[in-house]
Design goal:
Layout lengths: L10 H8 L1 H24 L3 H29 L1 H21 L3 H29 L5 H27 L4 H6 L2 H11 L6 H6 L3 H11 L6 H11 L6 H7 L1 H18 L3 H6 L1 H7 L5 H29 L1 H25 L4 H19 L2 H11 L6 H30 L1 H22 L8 H9 L15
Helix pairs in contact: 1-6, 2-3, 2-5, 2-6, 2-8, 3-4, 3-5, 3-20, 4-5, 4-8, 5-6, 5-20, 6-16, 6-19, 12-13, 13-19, 13-20, 15-16, 16-17, 16-18, 17-18, 17-21, 20-21
Length: about 475
């Protein structure tokens, strides 16, 4: 177990392997964008049926996130990810051989369960194994792998689109899922989960195996144990402690903010947006998807580089400003109409500006913050609620966007998301704390002391 890993086994490697779950998340999110036109053609799907196929993943994600809280507490973060990997393999293979839309929707729900569990357990695992000095950067691995997964899905969709091979588009996800399943067998368990279960010796062994000489393992273990002295957790703590309710509420708000930026309408319906912008051919629409996916990946590296230097709060503020500008100009261009090639390319450029804003900020940072702000004894419950919120909001947007587009028209539809991004700037200023270089235990101490939410990332007072 833990002793098979030594201090020479870099924590970056451990976090990267765990974050492969994000790759699968991204692939299952992105693959439907390219496959949907061919599915619609083969199964004669209506707009409502298309929405059901897309949103089935989100429904499963919400249910998976709710189940993940129980799983993560009872069997641990690592083995929750093992279950997710098995579901990824099964769901992908069923998608590939589906005889009809009903089975396809069922398989997408299975994949959603996997994504929901992974989206809960992976940020939690990463925040609990990474030392605080690089916790933000390691947390962004998850979002980075999501963006790489989306790009990989867009590339495979483009390759398979020549033969309209949508079954291969959907089934290819089983390969990285099998890689994740094998990798998980060699990763350590979360030291914080082990300590919470009274397995202090094992927790210490894991910390010794994944920390370097500059880290004070004894001090970290003492801080973990200090935070465990209150024996309440989960829903009982939520009912009893108003400060815990505040952190849960902030987690819910953060996930709503992330989803209502409009990111997933861009990812799920990229070909549709390209068509509205004036790109009519299949090749043009598919390559628009690839460019969006590539920019999404590259911009996430910005977050990796700045999150532990700039901090969470300033990065979020910059991101929401950039997203508001990109979405606002996109709305303007769609209202004017793409009457020439320059206008068409400029419209897509504004989509890319929006993608950059999201990928450098709200994409990775919301997951990092949601894993940082919850007290240890209520972390599973708090992240369950916030992750389920993410998926319900995601499902709502995926299911309603095409009807919204039909009712309001593209310009007004994107104007709505512009206004929301402006509102989120204010929410960030008022509610979001700066948690850079502050231990999870100190964040918890500030929260339970009743400090304002935006101040819980400040150093703990010694008097």
């Amino acid at each position: 177990m833990a002793k098979t890993l030594t201090k020479k086994y870099n924590i970056v490697v451990i976090c990267f392997l765990a974050a492969i779950a994000g790759l699968l998340f991204g692939m299952d999110t992105g693959v439907i964008s390219g496959a949907l036109p061919f599915l619609s053609k083969e199964f004669q799907l209506t707009a409502q049926a298309e929405g059901q196929v897309v949103s089935a993943l989100m429904f499963g994600g919400a249910v998976g996130a709710i189940l993940a809280g129980w799983l993560s507490w009872n069997i641990g973060r690592k083995y929750s990810l093992v279950i997710a990997a098995i579901l990824f393999v099964a769901g992908s293979l069923i998608c590939a051989v589906t005889p009809n839309v009903t089975v396809l929707v069922f398989a997408r729900v299975i994949l959603g369960l996997a994504v929901g569990i992974a989206s809960f357990a992976t940020p939690l695992y990463l925040s609990e194994v990474a030392p605080e000095r690089i916790r933000g950067s390691m947390g962004t691995f998850y979002q980075l792998l999501i963006t790489i997964g989306i790009l990989a899905a867009f590339l495979s969709d483009t390759a398979f689109s020549q033969a309209e091979a949508w079954r291969w588009m959907l089934g290819i996800v089983a390969l990285p899922a099998a890689v994740l399943l094998i990798a998980l067998l060699f990763l350590p368990r979360s030291p914080r989960w082990l300590a919470a279960k009274g397995r202090t010796k094992q927790a210490e062994e894991v910390l010794q195996s994944i920390r370097g000489p500059e880290d004070n393992v004894e001090k970290e273990l003492d801080e973990i144990q200090d935070s465990l002295r209150i024996k309440q957790y989960g829903f009982p703590l939520f009912k009893k402690n108003k400060n815990f309710r505040r952190s849960v509420g902030l987690g819910v708000l953060l996930q709503i903010m992330q989803q209502f930026t409009g990111i997933n309408i861009v990812l799920y319906y990229a070909p549709k947006i390209a068509e509205v912008a004036g790109f009519a051919s299949t090749a043009e629409k598919m390559w628009t998807m690839v460019i969006i996916g590539l920019v999404n990946v590259l911009a996430t590296f910005i977050a990796v580089g700045i999150i532990d230097r700039w901090g969470r709060r300033p990065t979020l503020l910059v991101g929401f400003v950039v997203m508001a500008i990109g979405m606002g100009v996109l709305s303007l261009m769609l209202s004017i109409g793409s009457t020439n090639p320059f206008a068409q390319y400029f419209t897509i450029l504004m989509v890319l500006v929006f993608i950059i804003g999201f990928a450098m900020s709200a994409g990775p940072l919301i997951w990092v913050l949601c894993s940082e702000i919850q007290p240890l004894n209520g972390r599973d419950f708090g992240i369950t609620v916030s992750t389920a919120t993410n998926w319900f909001a995601n499902m709502l947007i995926a299911y309603t966007f095409l009807p919204l587009l039909t009712w309001m028209g593209p310009a007004l539809a994107f104007l709505v998301y512009t206004i929301l991004n402006v509102i989120f700037i204010g929410f960030t200023l008022w509610f979001v704390p700066e948690t850079k270089n502050i231990s999870l235990e100190h964040i918890e101490a500030n929260l339970m002391a009743g400090k304002k939410l935006r101040d819980i990332g400040q150093p703990v007072s010694t008097h």
